[in-house]
Write a structure and sequence with these properties.
The protein is an alpha/beta fold. It has 14 helices and 13 strands.
């Protein structure tokens, strides 16, 4: 078992703010393994996929009174008949207990959650293996992480069999999408999902997507909402401060994992020109992990100049992040234009390297060239949704 201490720390921080930590993340990203790493000496585990789990918690008061350990884990808690009631009673009546509940989506996605436990929970969104975790996974080469993706079973495999990705898609629809959203047409849903994976990193247009897949706009919009809620797709919306030359409408769409993006695009094996696009995805995942309370944007003007990611920490401090597989290919023109609108903030070129970071000067522009590990967040804040 490979440890993931960053995420254990995030769970511990969540418990400092609320009695329930809600651990969400896509199927097979490692939620169950992470909860098991708390150890049987500390936690009681309830596998809610098993029919007996319903009987175990039929009377929540009796169940919680019998708990002799500090932590109670409900894995796949949405499988219970009335999960919000079970969690609410635990949080309100047994404040000495710490509760960890896992699921693929937000609580509000399931009709079973009549109460979304506002004020009683904090959300930790578990991502596939991030850049900073690669040393703990046997110093995994970043090139393998880009090709195989970050789901631990895929990342640790010697080869990349297409069957893993196809089976994951089928299971994702059956166990998450169909159960939560009651979509019935798996082929239509997967057609939309696979199209978005092929477009990953590009701008998202509803009408273009509907035409390409052969479905209606409402179908694309409903499927996209489901994919966002279950963390399979991320929309990165444009940063806009009022300039007339800025594009303000179209978001960019990113698939949740580089292995699935490369699989959908038929990139087997990867070529040198593929690494840059996939590296941008890995940087985004690092930002999502380490800046959980900061909205991630991108910037682009009508002339096509673009900054990959923008983090607005305040009205007067906006960080700009460019992703480069080879930092020598960085052209500062877009960043220079961006800083003419928004002069205050840090500038980064983020690249994979084993060397220490360094600072370069481009005219009056100071740029830090570094790995994602040098991007530090403020103390973690947690979402309520």
């Amino acid at each position: 078992m490979f440890g993931r201490p960053f995420w254990i720390n995030r769970i511990e921080e969540a418990w400092q703010q609320a009695p329930i930590a809600w651990l969400s993340g896509v199927r097979r990203c490692g939620k169950t393994t992470l909860t098991e790493s708390l150890g049987p000496e500390r936690a009681i585990y309830v596998n809610c996929d098993l029919p007996i789990s319903e009987e175990m918690v039929r009377d929540p008061l009796i169940f919680y009174r019998s708990c002799t350990k500090a932590v109670v884990v409900f894995d796949e808690v949405h499988q219970l008949g009335d999960p919000s009631r079970i969690l609410k009673i635990g949080a309100d009546t047994f404040p000495h207990l710490k509760i960890l509940a896992t699921g693929s989506s937000t609580l509000a996605a399931s009709k079973k959650f009549r109460d979304t436990l506002t004020g009683r929970k904090r959300v930790v969104h578990l991502l596939p293996v991030t850049w900073g975790e690669l040393p703990a996974f046997g110093n995994m080469p970043v090139t393998k992480r880009l090709f195989h993706g970050g789901l631990p079973p895929a990342l640790l495999a010697d080869t990349k069999p297409p069957s893993f990705y196809r089976e994951w898609m089928d299971s994702f629809f059956a166990r998450d999408i169909h159960r939560l959203f009651e979509f019935r047409d798996m082929n239509r849903f997967n057609a939309v999902f696979e199209y978005l994976l092929r477009q990953s990193g590009g701008q998202f247009l509803v009408t273009k997507t509907a035409t390409a897949v052969g479905v209606t706009r409402p179908t694309v919009e409903s499927h996209l909402r489901a994919l966002e809620i279950t963390h399979a797709i991320t929309l990165v919306r444009p940063f806009f401060g009022g300039g007339q030359s800025e594009i303000v409408k179209q978001p960019k769409v990113y698939g949740f994992d580089t292995g699935f993006v490369s699989h959908a695009r038929g990139w087997d094996p990867l070529r040198p020109e593929d690494y840059g696009a996939l590296w941008e995805h890995l940087v985004l995942e690092h930002l999502q992990a380490h800046f959980p309370d900061t909205t991630i944007r991108y910037w682009r003007d009508k002339a096509g100049r673009e900054v990959d990611f923008v983090l607005a920490h305040s009205r007067d401090r906006v960080d700009a992040i460019e992703c480069k597989w080879d930092p020598r290919s960085f052209d500062s023109a877009a960043l220079q234009t961006f800083r003419s609108y928004y002069p205050n903030g840090r500038n980064y070129v983020v690249a994979p390297s084993s060397e220490p970071g360094y600072t370069r000067q481009f005219g009056n522009l100071e740029v830090r060239v570094c790995t994602p590990s040098e991007l530090h967040a403020e103390p973690a804040c947690f979402m309520e949704s």
